[in-house]
Design brief:
With 95 residues, the chain is mainly α. It contains three helices and no strands. It is flat and about 55 Å long. The model has no long low-confidence stretch (mean pLDDT 80).
Length: 95
């Protein structure tokens, strides 16, 4: 039984290491508000539609997840391309 307690206590250390790695790598991430707002808007819309069709917790979760996935796909296919192109375009008139 003592071995089981030791394994459970190690989970806290793993979580702290994972959190430290995320915080260390976070400055290298390129982030724009559209990455969050577009999937969030689609997720909330999916949540509302699912709750209108079937007001259950399962429907709410499914609608939210499907909406997030659809919003992420919309962002990835349209806006990301525009953002990358605007960042790689050299300024005009410069040497």
């Amino acid at each position: 039984m003592a071995g089981g307690k030791a394994l459970r206590g190690g989970g806290v250390g793993r979580k702290l290491v994972a959190l430290a790695l995320i915080l260390a790598l976070l400055p290298a991430c390129q982030w724009s508000p559209a990455q969050l707002y577009i999937p969030l808007a689609y997720g909330l819309t999916g949540l509302c539609i699912a709750l209108l069709m079937s007001p259950t917790p399962t429907a709410a979760i499914v609608g939210l997840v499907v909406g997030f996935l659809l919003g992420a796909a919309v962002y990835n296919n349209s806006l990301k391309r525009q953002i990358v192109e605007s960042e790689t375009t050299p300024p005009r008139g410069g040497h």
